[in-house]
Design brief:
This protein is 16% helix and 28% strand. It starts with a helix and ends with a helix. The N terminus is likely disordered.
Amino acid sequence: MSAKITVMGSAMALSLFMAIQAQAGVSESQAQRLGESLTPFGAQPEGNGQDPATGEGIPAWNGGIEEDDIPDAYEGPGDHHPSPFPDDEVLFTIDNENKDEYADKLPQGVKAMMETYPESFEVPVYRSRRTHSAPDWVNENTQKNAVRAELEDTGVDQSFGGIPFPILHGSNADKAKQAIWNHILRWRGVYVVRRASEVAVQRNGDYSLVTSQQEVYFRYYDPDLSFDKLNNIIFYYLSFTKAPARLAGGAVLIHETLDQEELPRQAWGYNAGQRRVRRSPNLSHDTPIAAADGLRTADDTDMYNGAPDKYNWELVHPEPVEMYIPYNNYQLASDELSYDELLQAGHTNPEHQRWELHRVWVVEATLKEDERHVYEKRRFYIDEDSWQIAAVDQYDRRGELWRVSLAYIKNYYEVPTTWTALDTFHDLRSERYHVQLLDNEENSTLDFTQPVPSERYFHPASLRRRGR
């Protein structure tokens, strides 16, 4: 009997060990597909077999934008980015009149935008170009993460310096959460500095800029660190308000944590008038952002951020599907485009937007019964190549579509990294919207070349010192 129990116990232990191993990642042989039968980030490299020049074709991925593809007009770090495709033209336009012809290839929120603004909002479709690219060392770390990264209830373990789950695996819910973590932990450089503005555009088109200098140190991608040295910190974010005068000198510091149950996001604010640094314990989930005039919640920022603990997650389709999404938006971020030309009532000017057909993962989040949030449901459309969320549909507690978020993607080819030129957050009821990352009228854009400051630079005390 004792021997039988021992054998049974060993078998159970072995089964448990194998189950744990299965949750940790894919096999070595599966991971070897990255960079071979899959792109380094796990996308399907083949096109869809149709001509991209028609606006209905997706080309093969051939490495994305590389150094040789950088336009000669690009002047260097911090310079605005000339388009690598200046001769591309609009192939056709989707609007409220013909949207039903493309219904299965448009996010629900985009169709709702057309219905809300039938005379002005449209989608100009260009030739699809798969421009995503990343440094070799990020691709190599991504392959390592495919095997070792573990999805936990409240975070990710043993992942560093690359996409954690380039090959989705496990249950449907696991795959959905993996896709969201891929967005949260996607490659965006190591340290970046930017002076940019955000604005709430009123129903009549009026707006007032809030300008700040933003600095982000992505510790998760610092090649001098490792997972064990992260100390649960993904990045440090520091922002100092420059204008208007009544807000100038104010600052925000965030320590973003990987497992927010182990340690919640740490946030501090500096009030220049009071010269005081205070903790901001509620800067998460559906906390409304004052600078956005309440049009953006804390976890709307970057399309989605923070702990995914309030929602049940579902992968809507077993494979990526073809959708028209904002892509290669160099014109939208051009320094030749003024804010008055860009910002109009209801939405940014479609004349300067670029949309393309790409494959996206569609992920749906439904609020848990015992949780509270202003969004009962959210649907995310995630670019297959970069894991950047391109669009979000947000539903209220009655199940009605309420808000729509759009990320206007482009490749910062000097790094290279695929990020956004502009993020917009639309309230369909009030017909107002919020815009982040405006820098068209600034002398420079994102600068990825500055040396990484010391850890002390991102200490709360630095807010008071630099705010004087």
